Amino acid sequence: MTTKPFVSQLDSVMEVPSTRAMFFGAGLATAAWAAIIPIIKSNIGIDDGTLGLLLLCLGVGAISSMPLAGAVATRLGCKLVMLVTVSVFSLVLILLPLATSTFQLAVLLTIFGFGIGATDCVMNIQAILVEKRADKNLMSGFHGFYSLGGICGAGVMAALLTLGISALQACILVSVFVVGGLFYFHRGLLPFSNPKEGPSFALPHGPVLLIGLICFSLFLAEGTVLDWSGVYLAEYQNVPHSSAMLGLFCFSLTMTLGRLTGDNTISRFGSRLVLTTGGLLASAGMFLAISASDLNLALLGYALVGLGCANIVPIMFSATGKQTSMPQSLAVPAVSTLGYIGVLAGPASVGQIAQYFTLPVALYLIALLIALATLVSLRVRL
Length: 382
Hints:
By secondary structure, the protein is mainly α. It has 2 domains: about 10-190, Up-down Bundle (Growth Hormone, Chain: A), CATH 1.20.1250; about 205-375, MFS general substrate transporter like domains (Growth Hormone, Chain: A, Up-down Bundle), CATH 1.20.1250.20. Helices cover about 80% and strands about 0% of the residues. The protein has 14 helices and no strands. The chain has helices spanning about 10-45, 50-75, 80-95, 100-135, 140-160, 165-185, 205-235, 245-260, 260-270, 270-290, 295-310, 310-320, 330-355, 360-375. Helix 3 runs antiparallel to helix 4 (about 100-135). About 50% of the residues are buried. This is Major facilitator superfamily MFS_1.
């Protein structure tokens, strides 16, 4: 049972905007790193295979941090953990452009991933607690600010780099903005978490396992669109390379809009209808994007995938806060970890399937996976 420790009226008013700021900052920093990948790759002189292994370091750092972050937040509270983890990944973001060797980059990416993963876990714990305390739907909006941060980060970095500002200077600006936001909004971060119940770590089971598998599937699909939509449009639908990223843009735009309006949509139509309709819409959109012979239809398909996926993961995190089979301090890290594994596994698994059965077959399987995850979601209590 979640307790409600005393906080000042100002702190209480700040809870929602502070939570939104944490999601936005994490999305902004992640997008900033993605924007400088080609620059760092060129500076160090690494090939694609080495880059893939380095990106795995980031993922390992993130996954390893999540169970630990949940346990520490239970003991020390959400505020203290996020003050540390956001400061860590913001500092490391500045150091990434300074890396001069593969070893340095591997170490920095592991620490960066650790900070991002821990922040992701704890900000979702905070989001669940704030949603409960407010007694209204807020989760989709929180995740919407993460998506908004990603779009803003990509746009700002592209603009800064185009203007001739160095990668280091651009990362400093982003980091200062994120840390400034952290200390401006810190009063709304919760100085507590759920009380400790049971062990510090436990394997997911019951509804938490189902929720985790659904998040795994959806994050896998999102990672696939991120890494493979441009390749598919360019190589299989003969779209010019200059236009190949339009699929990802349409996906990101509708996902962000869907999440920012998702709380009102869920309040009006209910979580179950939004979840089921969204899953079917995303699956159908993926089929359309793959099979369309016209670019506009393909882009419509990617837009439908983004809109359909938008609120599924937020609804699953809200369900994580309502289930009683596992303490929230264990359930949220478990769901976050499974979801992040999906992000890492998606692009790699699609590549392996494509090598043996072609890329369209691999993407059709992702569409079927979304439909299957939607079917499994019927067993989750919302």
